[in-house]
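Troubleshooting: if your tokenizer reports a length mismatch, compare your output against this known-good record of 504 residues.
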Amino acid sequence: MKWILYIFLSVILSVSCGPDPVVEENVKLSTDIQSLEFPAEGGDTTVVVTASGKFYLVPANDWVSCRKGKEGENHTTEVIISASENVTEEDRTTRISVVADEQSVYIDVIQAGVGKNDEPGPGFPIPEDNEAWKMAQKLGMGWNLGNHFDAYNNGVSGETYWGNPKATPQTFKMVKAAGFKTVRIPVTWLGHFGAAPDYKIEGAWLERVAEVVGYARDAGLNVIINMHHDGADSKYWLDISSAALNASVQQKIVEQIDAMWTQIAERFKDEGEYLIFEAFNEIHDGKWGWGANRTDGGKQYACLHEWNQTFVDAVRAVGGKNTRRYLGIPAYCTNADLAVQFLKLPTDKTLNRMLVSVHCYDPTEYTLTAKYSEWGHTADQTKKAPGDNEESLKKTFDTLYDNYVSKGIPVYLGEFGCVNRSTAREQSFQQYYLRYFAKLAQTKGIPCIIWDNGAKGAGNEKHAFIDHGSGAYCSAAAQAAIEGMIDSYTNSMSLNNVYRTAPK
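Known-good structure output:
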């Protein structure tokens, strides 16, 4: 009996003293996207579901089906959602319920009707006399010669000050061969002009800018030049902070804008319509659109409007081919939302020759600082910026399309981009971001010009794609990124199909 009692007690102790039972982590049910769009021909797309246990997907209509794919980390599971062909002319919508225990979330689905483009370009007839729109379409995909003529040290700009080699004719031949149609050449004029009232621009600097413009022209490219860091953070002569507070400062700046753009326009008055003047770069008070412009009753916006008007008037007054030159008009901080809310286009005696200039680096923590390494609906949730994905980028483009493009006012993105990455997986997301961005821009009728500052390597502000001196690709990854982006912009693939190429 003793040995039986001994065994009984041993069993009890072994159960009691063993490891604690595993408690299932309580994870909030969620999906990485909440809405899907399918073309009329149907197709598949992948949604990532996060759930602590079993979950079920319940489509509301039989033209949509769901099946579970591979499981990932952190309670994630891939789900493949399929839509059959829509043979009707009407769009159709449905909702998929995702259910787990007492939790539920929804995915809204829309599918285009047959004969409809799932991601149309401008849905309005362009007037035959809207020459600015025609020019915008000629711009296509473009490339920035960034951190070049816009570079400066101690208040003086210089072509090689920030580490780039001098531009050569070969640079632009290779940019053209890569498939670009436009080059933007940012120019900072600091340290190369004299005192009031003439503000005479140094001849050697102006002629070197003209020489490089000629390289691009001879390569068959459209060209955009501007005033770039002259207004950087209100530190230099284009000081919008001081101008908004002091009328005499504003008047002095207006006089200098008039004098300097008159000289620039005079130098290029015989150049054809391939050359566009862009008034200014990212004018703001140092707070990137979140400073005094929000609280000063519109004073900074009013200053910029007067600057833009002065620019237009100065260029037109020179005559020659400047009477019909296309002009880029920047919004405050070149921000899309601020453009829609506060940009007032100047009056121009020459009709249909202005284009709205904005920039887009959304989300900046992915595209500029590289705080996050992935982007989009297939990204690891811990490696992407919260709330930023394809849908948030589409909102920016929808804003520009609805408020400008759909009304016949052309827009171009003078800058966008995504910094280089070091690993193959991170590079695949960078390439996907650029492909998606380019296709989205193309479907909205908006040309876009990628930022290239020549900074090699990976990470924060490393935007080197094409060598500024030779025109060669800076790396195999850079080549893949550029080729994929240009192909996306120019081919007939729909945005939904690009969406389905996201890294897994």
